[in-house]
Amino acid sequence: PITVLIAAKDEAANLPRCLEALGPAERVVVLDSHSTDATPQIAREHGAEVVQFDYGGGYPKKRQWALETLDIETEWVLLLDADEVVPESLWAEIRRTLSDPGVDDAYLITKGFHFLGQKFTHGGFSHEAVLLFRKGRARFECLIDDPSGLDMEVHERLIVDGSVGSLDTALIHEDFKGL
What we know:
- It is a single chain.
- With 179 residues, this protein is α/β, with parallel strands linked by helices.
- It is 18% helix and 32% strand.
- The longest helix is centred in the middle third of the chain and has 11 residues, at 88-98.
- It is globular and about 40 Å long.
- The protein starts with a strand and ends in a 6-residue tail after the last strand.
């Protein structure tokens, strides 16, 4: 059982692909920042819950706020952006990994960048991030002087209370909002 938290704002172009790949999740919550496009409607049409986030500055930002505020009943949490897709092969690896008796408390997953339907093979970059973790075992670092002004965590790290493993299968990270 996994709760998926998706950070979103004006993601109508990306969200359908993301949501269509989340069938194995027990619960899907779209953390919206008052989108002006059809993001909330698309989320609801795909069976996701929509929670609006009002940022007042400082800490916590969107995803940490969700971890502190939402009543998450599943043992596991998966963090996604609306332009990411969990391929079936990653779901299969997650199932195998979480059924292992020596399961870790969190897992690094590679964000495999794609462009125009093709995986980057030269140039570009992919990086690992802790995206899957046991509820209550991870939190975002608190950046005291965050000059970004953004309402959500971007490339910030999760601090894990426990062991961290790594999954081999990458997410598909591809933005369709335009060149």
